[in-house]
Records
---
Amino acid sequence: MSDADQTTVVHAYGLVPGGGRFSLPERGIADATVRTIAFHHLEVVVSDLPAESFSEAAWAEHGEDTQWLTPVAAAHHDVLQHLVERGDILPLQLPGIYPSDEALIDALESSRADLERAWQTLAGRVEWSLQIFPTAELPAPEKPAPRSGREYLERRRSQQDARETERGRRETAVTEAHEALAREAAADVVRAPLDKAVTGREEPMLLNSAYLVEREQEQRFLALAERLHNQLVATSGMRIEATGPWPPYSFVGAEGAGERHEDEPGMVP
Amino acid sequence: MTESQRSESQRSPMFVSNRPQSSPESLADVLERVLDKGIVIVGDIQVRLLDIELLTIKVRLMVASVDKAREMGINWWEGDPFVSNIESEEKNEEELDLRRRLEALESRVGEQNEIVEGETTRERR
């Protein structure tokens, strides 16, 4: 394989249970075939990619270029999504490039204890994402012009009080919804809400969270999310959108995914 | 999710539960999870997601670390008419933290003054 070593690099998607119990997707990043390498009781799902386009140098060059990165990230996700719909998966983050199978195995071996711990946490569980959006704006300023500066200030003050009260009510409702779902989950993560420019919506995201849910509890979790959604719509002018099951990306921390990923997911920023 | 389903879900606030796909709707969610960095906005992009379709996304995306975003002073949920609660909570915490630090400093300065005063008294004796 020494020839191949010079022209290809190994891209790791994630780890699955050993024994080839479920089917791999046919194609991965850059249309490459997908194969596995044994790693103790697990298997690493990988593709051989042209070194020319995917070496560490290429990542350094393009790693922050969305046009280059997006199809790579999408293909990486598609492989993992295929796998999570068929069984347990420990997803690895990008970039996950190694010069050879041996180098990849060495890297995994060096963090084996952490990987085992992560595997124990993730086995039998999937990630559900939850986002909360408002369905109505906060109270808007009243129209008629104030008759005096004093009246203007008083009115402004009462409007601000009303806004603060409403804001407080929403804050409480969002927090309570999150806490109720977190109680049903093995773990949870709250991320910074995504910007409107990214979501392409007029309304801002109020909560962007993820939950690690037992596969057997999925229906129960979703039923609760739907109940909370109906409650929020009726009483607080907000709605819930859930996405899943995701590969449990948000719950593979530094320990799970190798030395590169120092930050444990958590409250950001 | 098809176009018709999407517009329907926007009309009435139904509970939506989607399968994650690397489609434009959930692209940001995918990037956020798959990359070991945060995502931040800037500049229009065109993305070839599947070989068959070229999707122009009116999304402005740039990949950068969360720290870098903070350096750039991007605080996207500030000053929004809908208001995100999370931010106000953070501000309160920041204020509390500053107050705590100020109090700690003040008490330390107070202690030092006492020591100085004590020394002066002793000297006077």
---
Amino acid sequence: MSEKIGIYVCECGPNIASKVDIEKIMDEISKLEDFKDKELVIKNHKLLCSNEGKEFLEKEINENKLTHLVCAACSPRDHDTTFINVCKKTQLNPYLYRIVNIREHCAWIIPDKEEATRKAIQYIHAGMNRVLYQDSLFEKELDSNPDVLVIGGGIAGMEAALNLAGEKRKVFLIEKEENLSGKAVFLPEQKISDVQKNKNIKVFTKTVLDKLIGFMGNFEVVLKSTENPDETTELLAGAVVVATGYEFFDSKKLPEFEFEDKDDVINSLEAERMFSENKKITLKNGKEPKTVTLVHCVGRKEVGFCSKICCDYMLKISNYLKEQSSSIKITHLIKYLNLPYKNSQNFYNKIKEKGVEFIRYSDLSVNGTKVEYTDINDKKGKLESDLVILAPAMIASKGSQELAELLNIDLHETGYFQEVHQKINPVSSTTDGIFIIGSARGPANIIDAMQQAKAATGKIFTQLIPGEKIIPEVMVSEILEAYCTGCQTCLQVCGYDAIYFDDERGISVVNEAVCRGCGNCVGSCPSGSIRTKHFTNPQLYQEVKEAIR
Amino acid sequence: MDNPENVLIIGSGVAGMEASLMLSKAGKKVYLVENLPIIGGKIIKNEESFPNMDCSTCLVAPIQQEILQDANIEVLTLSTVEKVTGKQGDFKVTVRKKARYVNLEACLGCGMCYPVCPVVLKNEWEENLMDKKAVYVPCSGSLPNVPVVDASECLFLNGKDKSCNKCVEACMFGAMDFSQKDEELKLDVTGIIVATGFELFNVQELENLGYGKYPGVYTAFEFERLFASNGPTEGKLFLRDSEKTPDSVAIVHCVGRDEVGYCSNICCMSSSKHARFIKHNLHDAKIYNIYSDICLTDKSYQKFYDETKSHDSEFIFQSDRKKMNISKKDGKLEVSYFNGKETKESILVEMVILANALRPSDTIEELSKTLEIKRDSFGFIEIEPSKIGSVETSRPGIFVAGCAEGPKDIQGSVIQSEAAVAEILSMLDR
């Protein structure tokens, strides 16, 4: 089939027309030496992006049976999609079209009309060169599995499972311990029974992840029992939710914290559990404390971040103690007060009114229930109380590193799982289809954890719809088998883990369902055996050779 | 579409935009109502956002663009919700859409209409730091990139000069349309998400801080606009009405915290960001952050704060926010405060930035009455207390996300909007 290239110059009203010579552009393009043997259709239009313009373009493509299309118009950011959508209505494959920006790149920035016109011609010429080297590409559809694997049976994991499970979506909830529950003190009982009653949730306790391969919509999962590593279960899932929670920083690791298990030094979680079980916080000998010291920010400096929720729950513990006996003398040793929840400030004021004391410390040491501190004005002080309650920093749970490797997701420098974007995509991990919620992605209270579980549910509901196919990226990398030397450099630079090594053939292979077409591998390949579709070397060369001439 | 259920989203900031795109992907029709002429919310006032100092425009412009091009999302700018009847699954909504007087389809955003307009007004979106015309876009880069006519100020529309036709003549696309009328739209929706965001505490309530009295005192948003490359000074850090750059800056945290009664979550980080920006641009400037507590809500924030503290700014602790005073001394601003030892100290600076507290948006009181949903004692929308971990309001089928529910950073707002989407989709599935 001989090529018939359509070149449509948009005037963008006066935006382009008044700053470049449209007639001259069309005339010069029609006389290009290297396109002498090609059939060209060259036309201008007042406003190609208007409804009338789009209809015009559609008709032109069909009636002229164009094989390639170049639109000389505005920034692709504005109207690339517009023209792609026009192509989709015709027989022309949208990958055989190219937009050339003669507005922002020429008309709007070059005051001299002749110069702007010359550059516009050059750019259109470059686009024409490129479009001839472009290939038709076709979207593929893949079946997807809507089921979800949830790792971690704490409050976040259970909430996610309950929200996700339905007639058309099964949930596999795995927990490494013997029972569901996690660390949350209040609430879990109801949740546990809701999970157990739900016929669309299958719970695996004393179970961990052994292996995961695949991509969003199609993960192959192998689970293994913590008791018998040979006992494995294989299943399929479309998405994974990681809700493995947190652990406390070990206060005893700090040289300035000297205490033993027999001492009345407990952590905040122990205090909360005690209160929830007995409605009382007591000493080891069963008596009620008369003086209590609460130490905030234990290990904060060592872990390098603020655990966000401790100030809030330490105030809550203070309140329990005051409810238990209003005469208890309570002192909080704080660094800063971090009260991000909207009702916390009022709560703090209320606690203060009850006579609870707050001292800002810069340094302190704990020796049994004796606490010596230096305050922010370098004044030294000593507190000897019946009970010391510590708020240790919250750190990523043990095994996060191994789990990250199994799942091929990134860890943040704090050891927690890393979001793909801290602000605008906060519950998605760095691998598509794998989500991170609750204290596995950073310190979270129960409400944070539950809302994040719902957020991940929302993401899965909209990305993995039962019965709907998924359409992977079309502009992906491909490795030319004959040239690949098997050096595996590409495996190291791929940010999506989309390349694997085929041992039998001794070459690298791209998993097209996972590849995003970033081109990292192309740049790194020493033998030049990788190309990214729609951004091949010949395509770029043809365009650039004219554009920089 | 297989599922023609419609959803109404009120507010087009990060929370409203995220929910719109997600629901559209799930095949739902979305009505996105915004009372301003543009979408994007407060984030587009920021040049860069903490902690990665990402360019905010680069972060949200693609999202805004995607929304405008999404066939499932009907963007209703200049619109307010007037009435809601019915119940979860079957709400009847009346929306009042004000006339833009510019045809959204015909206008290209070329900007030929503003220079010819004879009416000069203060641009509130730019915190009154620059002027606008009666036909205007709030800032360059506005999306949709289509101006709006201020009907009460336009000489033709307010009748002061019926012969004024300058913008109509300047427009080469025939996009000016003075025949447009305010419209009343009737929508049937199954669920509603309220994502109306926040405003900043009015610092003029605190006379001791000298805002309005001394030109060198700025609010956080005024500073954000000075800092913005598409703002009044194109990102140059000039003191108000001059071309002088400040040699010293004090950034005051927690302004209005005692008055509003809560911590606003984001100011410690945005104040650190401001310190970094100033240091980056004015290497020799002396920068002070005056704080009373440090609120860091994400795992990555402590590092940002620590680095700011060691490289860019001195952090000074003040023990009693109410005792701060700002006055004029030797041509500079004297900021006096009580330190940790309860001793009075002061610093002399040329510029003061007041990190004012977040408060519920102006429209929320009326909107909550229209929607018949409860607010908390601060005026934010309340999540139904019996539904722990949910984002549903006191009225079933109406959800809340982002700062409409309480002060939070972008991450927190996005999480709530994604949670609202999950709850709406679960509701529709039943």
